[in-house]
């Protein structure tokens, strides 16, 4: 991945020019004196020259020493930074599902060479690239050319300790994640382990990096053995030093096994193993003080009449040297405050600028903070790869850099999040600016051979309206982004106090829900399901209810989405399943329907959890019906289909709930045969009011009968609806016309009307 060029930075650091202070020369009055006075004046002038010469020598030495010390520090920091930056070069390959498939399960040397060895050599000039398995190196690229491992110059003595360090760290990390999660880690729960350091490889000083190859979001199952390790080697040769020259402007650098000779400056290569034979990076030092002194010495040895002129020249040279030093420091500061991927200001620069500008805001000078979050960026990374995502972020950075706003600062906050600071007088101007930003990023972009259209959501805060604390303004803007996404994405929302109250309310509700699960505030109601005659009970659907002591009855439509977002839904669903099975165990042969969220199916051990609950409660599997939504099938997740297949093998029935309300597809039904289709209540309630609803129900029933699938209609509330469902041959009905959800104590009167689920209605295939 390339980094955007420095001349395309998205922000400009303001340079404050210091006012020049004129040096006034006060003429001395000519002194008429004898020889003694002349000698005295000559001695004074000579003493002055000697003092100034001594001062100049000391000053020059200090300037040279400071320059050498600063050079040592910059070069040392650059060496350490270069080692750290290798993680960026390797992460896009190592943290990629495709890389796991091509290395862990079978080694596709051609693919690995194109996407790893050759790519690193062509883009970053990596000299050696290896893939190391538990058995040793399995792939080698030497100077960008794939080489047989047996003949490749693999320096095991130098590289093996680094690889072993990665392997040991991976085991420790994996054990910690397993202990914390009590299961196999998924995706970024167990990120790759990266190690880098300087060492001698093949007898030459080199920078070596190693990283474990792991999947990204868990779509590829990680092998149980230690993952492959990607290793790369950069020799400290001319190419490596040319990058150093371009970054730090050092003169004639070279790597030597001997300490710096007189007249050259150098630092020791920070080898990882201190027992390694030392090497030094040396260069020709910059001696601004000596250069300055050599320019001034002729003037200092001149006549006393030129003393003041020489002093003026010294000041001029000193000022020029200071200016050069200041410009060099500003350049280093500019690079430290730039995001290397997007070319925008980074978070440190954002916070620094925001703090400065917040000190100047008042009622007439307002500062708007626009928090931009790209919509669907994770999907682009997952489907097209992180390298395409990085190119997309770079393009977005260039677009934000070209925004024509007054006093604007565009910055990358992190990931796919950006923050733009603009001066605005009214909320209308802020909203207009946000729309212009969204229009800019919505324009199609071609990256990696793909034409992409990206949208975004923007949350805004305004200083001083919403405060003058930088961290608080960003927090509130993030809340506004959340509201923008809730409003359908692709819009601009200015923060309002009600948004924060809503977030606090949702957080309090989450806390109360955790407590309710722990303290048993939840209860289960059961809604009977009837045969189409409306008399015989064929089963019950378990529905969770929450009577909160302070809020009263909390609607499932309010707390279930919060449970799904916070990860509590699996604990909630398993609680409902366990208690419902325990309560319904002795209800004869009627079936029990329990809803499971799509979030539950992300767990690979879902079928084991359900089996354990059935074993603990003694509930027969053939009486249990799991209700799922179409979103689960639409997600097309292999883990979900595997769990559903395992549940069906146990004898559990599967019902497709709310059929027709989402992405209904015959392809999904054919791929995974469900036992029951539950027609969404929106169609049932439109019977008699819309011909389309009746026609759709008729088609669904005919289709289900052709496939030998049971049909249950939800939301039956009128006799007219029931009669129509009877006429089209629907199997089961459910709704308030027949019975609403009832507590456990009211179940007995419906059990008297129940029939065994072991004798399902006869299903007749019809010709469509």
From TrEMBL:
<feature type="transmembrane region" description="Helical">
    <location>
        <begin position="37"/>
        <end position="60"/>
    </location>
</feature>
<keyword id="KW-0812">Transmembrane</keyword>
<dbReference type="InterPro" id="IPR007892">
    <property type="entry name" value="CHASE4"/>
</dbReference>
<dbReference type="InterPro" id="IPR043128">
    <property type="entry name" value="Rev_trsase/Diguanyl_cyclase"/>
</dbReference>
<dbReference type="InterPro" id="IPR052155">
    <property type="entry name" value="Biofilm_reg_signaling"/>
</dbReference>
<keyword id="KW-0472">Membrane</keyword>
<feature type="transmembrane region" description="Helical">
    <location>
        <begin position="295"/>
        <end position="318"/>
    </location>
</feature>
<dbReference type="InterPro" id="IPR035919">
    <property type="entry name" value="EAL_sf"/>
</dbReference>
<dbReference type="Pfam" id="PF00563">
    <property type="entry name" value="EAL"/>
</dbReference>
<dbReference type="Pfam" id="PF05228">
    <property type="entry name" value="CHASE4"/>
</dbReference>
<protein>
    <submittedName>
        <fullName>Bifunctional diguanylate cyclase/phosphodiesterase</fullName>
    </submittedName>
</protein>
<keyword id="KW-1133">Transmembrane helix</keyword>
<feature type="domain" description="EAL">
    <location>
        <begin position="506"/>
        <end position="755"/>
    </location>
</feature>
<dbReference type="InterPro" id="IPR029787">
    <property type="entry name" value="Nucleotide_cyclase"/>
</dbReference>
<dbReference type="InterPro" id="IPR000160">
    <property type="entry name" value="GGDEF_dom"/>
</dbReference>
<dbReference type="InterPro" id="IPR001633">
    <property type="entry name" value="EAL_dom"/>
</dbReference>
<feature type="domain" description="GGDEF">
    <location>
        <begin position="365"/>
        <end position="497"/>
    </location>
</feature>
<dbReference type="Pfam" id="PF00990">
    <property type="entry name" value="GGDEF"/>
</dbReference>
């Amino acid at each position: 991945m390339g980094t955007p060029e420095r001349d395309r930075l998205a922000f400009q650091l303001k340079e404050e020019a210091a006012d020049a202070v004129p040096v006034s020369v006060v003429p001395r009055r000519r002194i008429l004196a004898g020889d003694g006075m002349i000698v005295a004046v000559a001695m004074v002038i000579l003493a002055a020259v000697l003092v100034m010469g001594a001062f100049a020598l000391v000053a020059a030495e200090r300037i040279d020493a400071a320059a050498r010390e600063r050079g040592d520090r910059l070069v040392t920091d650059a060496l350490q930074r270069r080692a750290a930056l290798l993680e960026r070069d390797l992460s896009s390959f190592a943290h990629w599902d495709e890389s796991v498939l091509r290395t862990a399960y079978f080694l596709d040397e051609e693919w690995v060479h194109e996407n790893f060895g050759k790519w690193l050599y062509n883009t970053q000039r990596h000299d050696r690239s290896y893939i190391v398995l538990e058995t040793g190196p399995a792939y080698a690229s030497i100077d960008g050319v794939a080489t047989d491992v047996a003949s490749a110059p693999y320096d095991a003595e130098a590289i093996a300790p680094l690889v072993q360090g990665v392997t040991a760290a991976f085991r420790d990390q994996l054990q910690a994640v397993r202990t914390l999660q009590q299961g196999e880690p998924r995706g970024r729960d167990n990120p790759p382990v990266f190690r880098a350091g300087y060492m001698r490889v093949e007898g030459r000083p080199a920078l070596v990096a190693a990283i474990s190859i792991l999947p990204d979001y868990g779509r590829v199952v990680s092998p149980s053995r230690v993952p492959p390790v990607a290793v790369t080697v950069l020799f400290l040769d001319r190419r490596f030093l040319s990058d150093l020259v371009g970054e730090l402007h050092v003169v004639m650098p070279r790597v030597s096994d001997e300490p710096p000779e007189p007249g050259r400056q150098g630092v020791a290569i920070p080898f990882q193993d201190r027992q390694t034979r030392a090497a030094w990076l040396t260069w020709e030092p910059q001696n601004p003080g000596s250069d300055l002194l050599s320019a001034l010495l002729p003037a200092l040895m001149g006549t006393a009449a030129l003393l003041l002129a020489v002093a003026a020249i010294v000041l001029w040279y000193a000022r020029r040297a200071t200016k050069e030093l200041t410009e060099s420091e500003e350049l280093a500061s500019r690079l430290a405050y730039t995001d290397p991927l997007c070319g925008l200001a980074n978070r440190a620069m954002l916070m620094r600028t925001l703090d400065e500008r917040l000190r100047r805001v008042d009622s007439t000078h307002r500062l708007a903070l626009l928090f931009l979050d790209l919509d669907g960026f994770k999907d682009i990374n997952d489907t097209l790869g992180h390298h395409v995502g990085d190119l997309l972020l770079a393009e977005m950075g260039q677009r934000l850099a070209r925004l024509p706003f007054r006093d604007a600062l565009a910055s990358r906050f992190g990931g796919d999040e950006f923050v733009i600071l603009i001066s605005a007088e009214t909320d209308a101007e802020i909203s207009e600016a946000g729309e212009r930003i969204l229009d800019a990023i919505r324009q199609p972009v071609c990256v990696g051979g793909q034409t992409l259209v990206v949208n975004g959501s923007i949350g805004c805060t305004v200083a001083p309206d919403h405060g003058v604390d930088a961290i608080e303004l960003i927090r509130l803007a993030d809340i506004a982004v959340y509201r923008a996404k809730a409003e359908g994405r692709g819009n601009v929302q200015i923060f309002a106090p009600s948004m924060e109250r809503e977030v606090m309310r949702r957080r309090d509700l989450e806390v109360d829900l955790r407590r309710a699960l722990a303290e048993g505030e939840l209860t289960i109601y059961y809604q009977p399901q009837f045969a189409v005659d409306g008399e015989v009970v064929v089963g019950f659907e378990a529905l969770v209810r929450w009577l909160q002591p302070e809020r009263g009855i909390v609607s499932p439509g309010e707390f279930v989405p919060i449970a799904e977002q916070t990860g509590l839904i699996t604990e909630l669903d398993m609680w409902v399943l366990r208690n419902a099975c325990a309560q319904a165990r002795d209800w004869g042969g009627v079936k029990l329907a329990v809803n499971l969220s799509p979030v539950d199916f992300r767990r690979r051990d879902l079928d084991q959890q359900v089996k354990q609950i059935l074993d603990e409660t003694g509930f027969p599997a053939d009486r249990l019906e799991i209700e799922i939504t179409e979103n689960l099938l639409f997600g097309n997740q292999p883990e979900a289909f595997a769990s559903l297949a395992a549940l069906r093998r146990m004898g559990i029935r599967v019902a497709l709930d709310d059929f027709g309300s989402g992405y209904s597809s015959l392809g999904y039904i054919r791929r995974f045969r469900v036992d029951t289709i539950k027609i969404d209540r929106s169609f049932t309630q439109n019977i008699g009011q819309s011909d389309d609803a009746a026609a759709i129900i008729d088609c669904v029933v005919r289709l289900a009968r052709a496939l030998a699938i049971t049909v249950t209609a939800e939301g039956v509330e009128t006799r007219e609806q029931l009669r129509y469902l009877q006429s089209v041959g629907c199997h089961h009905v459910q709704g308030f016309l027949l019975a609403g959800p009832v507590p456990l104590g009211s179940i007995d009167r419906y059990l008297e009307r129940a029939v065994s689920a072991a004798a399902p209605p006869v299903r007749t295939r019809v010709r469509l």
